[in-house]
Structures are given as C-alpha cells and as structure tokens.
Amino acid sequence: MSEPVDVVLIGGGVMSATLGTLLKELQPDWKIVTLERLGDVAQESSNPWNNAGTGHAALCELNYMPDPDDPSKAIGINEQFQVSRQLWSSFVDRGILSEASTFINSTPHMTFVRGAKSVAYLKARYETLKEQPLFRGIQYSEDSRVIHQWAPLLMKKRRKSDEPFAATRVPAGTDVDFGAVTRQLFDHLASSGADVRLNHEVKKLKRRSDGTWDVLYRHRVGSTPGSLNARFVFVGAGGWAIKLLQSAGIAEIKGYGVFPIGGQFLKTSNPDIVAQHQAKVYSQAAVGAPPMSVPHLDTRVVDGEASLMFGPFATFSPKFLKAGRWTDIIQQVRLSNLGSMLKVAVTNLDLVRYLVGELMKNRDRKIDSLREFAPGVDGDDWELIQAGQRAQVMKGGKLQFGTEVVSASDGSVAGLLGASPGASTTVSIMLNLLRSCFPDRQDEWEPKLRELIPTYGGLLNDNAELAESTERASAETLGLLT
Q1: Domain CATH for 344
Q2: pLDDT mean over 350-374
Q3: In which domain of life is the source organism classified (predicted)?
Q4: Using 50, 70 and 90 to split pLDDT, how confident is the model at 349?
Q5: SS3 call for 336
Q6: Among 56, 150, 195, 368, which residue's CB has the most CB atoms within a 10 Å radius?
Q7: What is the pLDDT of residue 290?
Q8: Burial of 98 per CB tally in 10 Å (0-12, 13-18, 19+)
Q9: 178-191 and 14-26 are packed helices; what angle lies between their axes, rounded to 10 degrees?
Q10: Is 478 domain-assigned?
C-alpha cells in the first residue's frame, strides 16, 4: 500500500530544494518527501563542478542580447536573478541558509570580444545597457591597459598588433556555488520535518482515479520496491524529467524530446594564476555552437577555495545525466516526438558540425583554445574535468536552449526541462510553478511570499530608486558590497 504524502519532489537538485523550502515556508503542515536516486544531493547539474556558477544576470552573457538595441531579454534574466538574491537574503536572515560567503561571492562579470564587427556590437550593447537601472555601473573599454587592470591574465602576452578588442565590466557580478545552496536547503528541510531519501530511484508515475499520484520507486541498496501516494509531484530530475513525465502519461509532454550535450572544462587551482584573474569573462560562441558553449574564463569559489575554469568544450553521450544510462536517448522516442526530433537533426547541421569538431579536439587543441583567450597561460598548470550533462529541449522541430516547465492541466504534476539560465533563475521558475499548479492558494500565500521577497510580483528595472535600494539591501545581507 502506498504511503500518503502531500508533496513528492523527484531529484536532489537546486530546483527541488528551492521548491521544497518555499512550500515548507508556505505550508509547514504539509508532508514533503524528496527521492534522489544517487547517494547524495547536488551531484548532477547543481554540483559546482558541473556548471559555471555564473549567477546568470545577463551582465556578461551576449546570447541574452543578440540585438544590441533590444535589452528586453537581458533585463528579464536580470530581474529573475534579483528575485533569487532577495530570497537567498531572506533565507540567510532566517538561518535557512548559512553564512552567505559559503555559497555566493562578489566576482566582477566581464565580456571580451575581438574583431571590428564584434567591438562595434559590444559598444552598442554597452550604450543600451548603461541606461538601464539594473545594469548601472557597467563599464566599457578598448584600452589594453584598462582591460589589463580588470583581468591581467586575459591580456598577458597579448600583442598590440592583434585584431581590435574590447571589454565590458560590471563590478557587482557574483559567483554562486549552487551545490552549497542545494545542500543547505535540503539540510534545513530535513531538520524541519521533511523526508529526504537518498538512493531511491523513481521508476514510474501512475495516476489514481482520485487525481493523486502513485510514485513507484526502488531503493538502489537492496533493490527494495516501494511507493508513495502524493497530491502533488514535482519532477526536478534534470534530463530524466522527460522519462518520468512520459511515464505519467500526461498529454502535455507529447511532442517533447531532449538532446543531451555534455561538456568539459580546463581547471587550475594554482594560487599564482588564480590571483591574476578575479572575474568571469564571457566571449562569443563559435558558429553553430549552442549558447551554453559560449567560451568563458571564470573565477570559481568552492568550499572557500578559488579556482579558474575555462570552457566549456562540448562532449557527447547518449546519457541524460552523468550517472544516467546509455539507452536514455532511445528510450525517450515516441510517435508523438519522433517527427520533431528528426526535423531537429536535419535543421541543425551547424550544431552537428560543431559537435564533431569539438569531439575531435584533443587536450593540446583545448589548451590552444584557452591560449586564444589568455595567451600567456602555461598548459601544464591546467587539468581537464568533466562537467554535467545538459538535456536541451526539442519541441515543434526546434532545438531550444532555455528552461521550460511542463505541467498537467490540473496542476497535480509538473517537471522542468532544459538548461541555461537554469539555477540562477530557480526562484522565479518555482514561483511561476506555484502560480500555475496552486492557483487557488495564491491569495493565502502572497503575504508570506512578500515577506520573503519584498518586490514579489513587481519589476525593478522600471524604478531606478527601487532597483538600487533592493540590490543594495540584498548585497548587504549577502556580503557583496564592494
């Protein structure tokens, strides 16, 4: 017989951790159970070495603003990150999250481009963004001396006779350890009465006649089967979300497919090198490359230690997770999504060529790519690490590079598909999920949500004074004032 609960969260990542913590604040009487198939939480995309930890706010990511005269998407991403910062600030004040420096650190965000056309684009982007309240303080330079002050490693041994270059810099950027956020939120959930069960692999979702869901699982230690009966199920299982939503049989998942793309980074923890680069520097993606493959040289702070990461270099595996199965890519195929997936294969030949080129790169060629970015580096100081698997959404014959929540019409089950900007905008994604899946509770929950997120439901960029005061307040709580 299935054990009755209010909420089942599938997957031990930052999405489930955030949703579970919000629900615990809003409905402390609800019984919440998390099922994670691995032996610990934050082992896939939320693990700090499996993502860039950028704190995506569109401060440096050019793919959020392809038209330098249209900042709307960049503003939208920044608005969402500000919501995340406000909630994290409230969680720090309440002791739900530990000292802020354990998961977020001040790290300037930069963009660096080469070539006359790219320089003209970046300057036009800067002229547009400097007028936006959420991007105040953005700086621009084509002067090698100024850029050297911002990021010495970037300019070391770069010849002045090379093609023109330019950079922007936002001092208020951050580095975020989403693994630490995830672990701390789950620790709080467990101490608050929620049940976090590790090594529990969900096999199937089955709807009962009363609209509730039987969540069938197997304990991976001993292979003991079991089931829970839940009023609401959230599938935050990364690439495996599509498999579980398909098993639920909801009409809304029809037509969806996912395409897995992996990645590697070059990493160094040599303190002499790390000291020369205290920033996150993004550039432009190669032709045909997905937005998630934009080259960047990043400061990372994990467990108090600073390192540098450069990449990503795309890899391919048919697995939807690093700890997935080789048959994942085949098991998702249905009559309802086969046509769309075939169309994606035919219409994305540039991506195919890019992936083939990436797979042919050996370590030396990857070091060469790093030297194009930072000419003075010594390859012996860098090691290759395997990053996470990203399952990009395929829908309607198109390959998408954002995140998308798919939920049943009655709101009883929902899952998250896709990747970037992902973790940085988790809070906004989960707030939208709460609105769509629990519409009848919004009036009841709104006062608490406004307590946790002072600007809940509003926009900061429309009010320069509010934007500045809100950012300053969260920066003060999170120790980010510079």
Answers
A1: 3.50.50.60
A2: 87
A3: Bacteria
A4: confident
A5: helix
A6: 56
A7: 64
A8: middle
A9: 40
A10: no
